[in-house]
Design a protein that fits this description.
By secondary structure, the chain is of the alpha/beta class. It is built from 12 helices and 20 strands. The strands form 3 sheets. Strands 4, 13, 14, 15, 16, 17, 18, 19 and 20 form a 9-stranded mixed sheet that branches. An 8-stranded parallel β-barrel has the order 5-6-7-8-9-10-11-12, surrounded by 4 helices. Strands 1-2-3 form a 3-stranded antiparallel sheet. Helix 7 links the parallel strand 9 (about 140-145) and strand 10. The longest helix has 17 residues, at about 205-220. It is elongated and about 70 Å long. Mean pLDDT is about 95; it is low at about 160-165.
């Protein structure tokens, strides 16, 4: 996304033209950015050719998943709904990993029936349930066991998953016990050690620490895992000039690990694939002055993008047309929902705006629409794929009658 003749464009299409044709708010995804992200991810780790399973929880749009599937990616799912969506998108069951701490009996049964590649179990009770269902079906099921490595990913507490106080995975002692249980089961084929330490990670050092812990545990229990699932969590830059995760250093750490352990690597990236591909176009409804600042009231709201309200996340906001005049007042960009937390960004020295102007919230491709809701009975926005000078509707805008 860039300015051409002072008009903000996604690939070759002006924001104003998109809004004129499809109205606002509108989610847009750049095909070129999606393609470049996948190519970059693959090339960064090409020396050991990992199985890359796109994390559906980051973006569950069926048609976007179909585009991602064309690049050869599998899927990481955390519910039966996501598993059904991955299969509907045409993803090969042999490339689907089912994660999550609370899989129900019906979800496990469904996953086994679909012959997916791997079920990553997170407790003894879950493994016992998998074993019970597999016995009834007289089938052997491939599983992984998720280890909690007690590693601080130095990310937000709300999206940390690898510390001992988090609900995910099992500690090293329980892990050892579960490996023994699986070895003695006729119906479980233990293929994988799984780990995931958090999301929006921008430093390679927590990953290095995680790999060292995994290495020690493998040597201690003396079991040959065919796969090591390293999860995802790779962060992106949401702020101008902010730090980015160094893939090269992470790659070096993994290759060092693989010298001592003969196994294949699985990744579950989500945000790093789609995060910076997405943009939310919104129109200014009203502007009002209060308490020394201007409230810029948008037609997009926290039901469309909840990350700022949920995590305190920051998304840059850009005007659709560039002018030199700057406002002397503080701008607070807010939505129309009856919640104080329905706000996106507070900023100084933004360019002058007037009512009916268009703005764009950046980097909303991950956990934007997938976390959206119909709060206040608001219909969900249209989703569009921008490919050069062409626009493809990925999902139509909801209508009020759909909600009634």
């Amino acid at each position: 996304m860039k300015y051409i003749n002072k008009k903000l464009t996604i690939e070759k299409i002006e924001i104003e033209n998109i809004a004129r044709k499809f109205n606002t708010p509108a989610y847009c995804y750049s095909y070129k950015k999606l393609r470049d992200n996948i190519k970059n991810f693959k090339s960064s780790f090409k020396s050991f050719s990992p199985l890359i399973c796109f994390s559906l929880k980051s973006n569950t749009n069926l048609n976007l998943i179909r585009e991602i599937k064309k690049f050869g990616l599998g899927a990481d799912v955390v519910s039966m709904g996501e598993l059904m969506m991955a299969l509907k998108a045409g993803i090969n069951p042999n490339k689907i990993v089912f994660s999550g701490v609370g899989k129900t009996t019906s979800e496990i049964d469904f996953a086994i029936n679909k012959n997916i590649f791997l079920i990553n179990a997170e407790s003894k009770s879950e493994i016992i349930e998998i074993d019970r269902i597999a016995k009834l079906k007289k089938k052997q099921v491939q599983i992984g066991i998720r280890l909690n490595p007690n590693t601080d990913a130095k990310t937000l507490n709300q999206i940390s998953t690898g510390k001992k106080e988090n609900k995910f995975g099992v500690n090293d002692k329980t892990f050892n016990e579960l490996v023994k249980f699986c070895i003695n089961s006729k119906y479980i084929n233990l293929k994988c050690l799984s780990v995931h330490i958090g999301s929006q990670i921008l430093d390679h050092k927590p990953y290095e620490k995680m790999l060292k812990i995994i290495s020690k545990i493998i040597k201690k229990i003396n079991y040959n895992f065919e796969f090591i699932d390293l999860g995802g969590g790779m962060g992106i830059s949401y702020k101008n000039n902010s730090k980015k995760l160094n893939y090269k250093k992470y790659d070096i750490a993994i290759k060092k690990f693989l010298k001592n352990h003969r196994c294949k690597i699985i990744f579950e990236p989500g945000r790093s694939i789609v995060g910076n591909t997405g943009f939310l176009i919104s129109r200014v409804i009203y502007i009002k002055n209060n308490a020394g600042k201007k409230f810029i009231i948008l037609d997009a709201a926290m039901n469309d993008l909840i990350r700022p309200a949920l995590y305190g996340a920051t998304h840059n906001i850009l005007p659709s047309s560039k002018i030199s005049k700057r406002s002397k007042k503080i701008y607070e960009f807010v939505g129309p929902i009856c919640e104080t937390t329905d706000k996106f960004l507070t900023i100084k020295n933004f360019q002058d705006l007037k009512e009916k102007d268009l703005v764009v919230l950046c980097d909303v491709g991950a956990y934007g629409m997938s976390l959206s809701s119909n709060y206040n009975l608001r219909p969900k926005p249209v989703e569009l794929l921008i490919k050069g000078s062409k626009i493809k509707i990925l999902k139509k805008r909801q209508k009020h009658k759909d909600l009634m």
